[in-house]
Amino acid sequence: MKLLKDLIKDIAPCATEGSDDVAIEALTADSRQAGPGTLFVALRGTAVDAHRFIPGAIAAGAAAVVCHQDYTLPEGTGAGACTLVRVPDTAEALGRLASAWHGHPSRKLTLVGVTGTNGKTTVATLLYDCARMRGEKAGLLSTVVNRIDTRAVASTHTTPDPLELNALLAAMVDAGCTFAAMEVSSHACAQRRIAGLTFAGGIFTNLTRDHLDYHHTFQAYLEAKKMFFDALPQGAWALVNADDSHARILVQNTRAAVHTYSLRAAADYRAAVAENHIDGMLLRIDGEEVATQFAGRFNAANLLAVYGACRLLGCGKTEALTALSALHPVAGRFQTVRSRGVTAIVDYAHTPDALANVLDTIREAAGRDACVITVCGCGGDRDHGKRPIMAAEAAARSSHLIITSDNPRSEDPAAIAADMLAGLGDDERARTEVVLDRRAAIRRAVEAAAPGSVVLVAGKGHEDYQITGSEKRHFSDIEELRAAFAAL
Predict the structure, then answer these.
(1) What is the pLDDT at residue 212?
(2) β-bridge partners, 232
(3) For residue range 399-457, what is the model confidence (pLDDT) as tens digits?
(4) Residue spans of the chain under pLDDT 50
């Protein structure tokens, strides 16, 4: 139980109608959970404005309601004993209220956020791994899995909603964690899910086209990411990829101390790829060589971000480099399966830039003349504009391209494939086929691969499901690859 007046200290209400000296037993943004003792926060979502449910929450006995400053109760609806708290932004308020409800757990952790289009999961997970190597109890919030020290908790979103997010952070504190790394998605920034959190540092990986089905324009997508750095407090640090032209824009208004990392230019932390193989790289970082179990320049950048963050968190150079040499790739990120002289790779690459990076890595490591067979698709009910670009990037770098389904959701898989094919010229189409059944597509790629070939299955990575219509059924690219090899 908490008093309303204590919870609303951080949200700067425009007005409070009714007593703020009331006991709150539960905090919710779901009007169906409103009842005696609850504080209901009405959010304005993209599909539904929850302000329409305020009369119902009041009727159910809610102790207080947080609403937008311009909200008017419908005629005939009285607030009664329910206190109305009016604010400029209810989403912002929910984040701050969730933090207060759980005792501001982010203030009790060294919390590092990672944002960008690609690399978030890898960087956040490796930071968690490094903290564990240092002997710290640590937490992780990622697309693949959430971790409270050693306990795994299923992940449903890249960045959870504020109530779940702060509950997880509070559980980390209760478990004795002193450090936490988390992915910060553009949706989380735009929807204020991270409002109220105190970050010790923030990392920017890169920015390329993604999520335009939600943000509509690339500029809006960039501005959502920028919100994260704008909100970093004085005393925090921002570590940004100087090789990405958007980096300087993202940190132009931050109060945090800005540090840079780069594979190409002058920066605070620098690295170069000395050797690149399918199963690892030799890197030169700050004048020292370190052997790693990761492949590709994109992973060199990810590892350099981890190195820079470790240094900013107080690690010595030797300690940080030793940690890099011991790290393992994240599930579904350039994950390899080998059989009968064929190397198959599963990667989460689901943006044009990520797909190009993975294929460039394969070409560099396997040789320009190697046979590379790519299996990929595009998600349904998502950005249509990237579909022809994805196909063009894949076809330009593959010997053979197989277009298939990847979570088609409510869309016709054949229509998605047609959108992808629209990005190909005649020569590329001659090297492309459409196999809509993803299992059949993977088997087709394996059967077509001769010894020395590389098969890339892209788009789903760690995901162990396929969404068709409203049905979510088990499907794992790694499992299907192993089954295809076993059937040869």
Answers:
(1) 57
(2) none
(3) 999 999 999 999 999 999 999 999 999 999 999 999 999 999 999 999 999 999 999 99
(4) none
CA separation for the pair 105, 473 (Å, rounded): 36
Separation of alpha carbons 173 and 185, rounded Å: 23
- Please tell me the predicted confidence (pLDDT) of residue 216: 64
DSSP 382: S
First to last CA, the chain: 62
DSSP code, position 49: B
Domains of the chain: 2-100 (3.40.1390.10), 103-326 (3.40.1190.10), 335-486 (3.90.190.20)
Look up residue 139 and give its DSSP letter. E
DSSP 8-state class, residue 234: B
- 62: which DSSP letter? B
* Rg of the chain on CA atoms, in Å: 24
What is the per-residue pLDDT for 213?
58
- The CA distance from 362 to 277, in Å, is 8
Supply the DSSP string of 2-47, one letter for each residue: EEHHHHGGGS--SEEES-S--EE-EEES-GGG--BTEEEE--B-SS
Token pair 């320049």 in the structure block, residue? 297
Whether the CB-CB separation of 218 and 209 falls below 8 Å is answered with yes
Nearest residue to 146 (alpha-carbon basis) of 136, 135, 158: 158
**Residues 409/381, Cβ–Cβ less than 8 Å:** yes
Q: Are 140 and 182 in contact (CB under 8 A)?
A: yes
Q: How far is CA 289 from CA 130, 131, 259, 310, in A?
A: 19, 22, 22, 17
Alpha-carbon distance values, 138 to 127, 147, 280 (Å) = 9, 8, 26
In angstroms, the Cα distances linking 144 to 130, 133, 154, 193, 443 are: 17, 20, 8, 19, 25
The span from the CA of 461 to the CA of 477, in Å, is: 7
For 317-354, give one letter per residue: b (16+ CB within 10 A) or e. Answer: eeebbebbeebebbbbbbbbbeeeebbbbbbbbbbbbb
3-state secondary structure of 112: strand
Query: Could you tell me which of 399, 465, 456 has the C-alpha nearest to residue 433?
Result: 399
Residue 5, phi then psi, degrees to nearest 5: -65, -30
Q: Is the dihedral of CA 191, 193, 196, 202 positive or negative?
A: negative
Distance of CA 351 to the CA centre of its chain: 13
Query: pTM higher than 0.85 for the full model?
Result: yes
DSSP conformation letters of 431-475: TEEE--SHHHHHHHHHHHPPTT-EEEEES-TT--EEEETTEEEE-
pLDDT (0 to 100) of residue 159? 75
Task: Please report where in the chains the tokens 């478990």 appear, as a residue.
Answer: 175
Backbone torsions φ then ψ of 154, nearest 5 degrees: -55, 140
- The enclosing H or E element of 428 equals helix 426-430
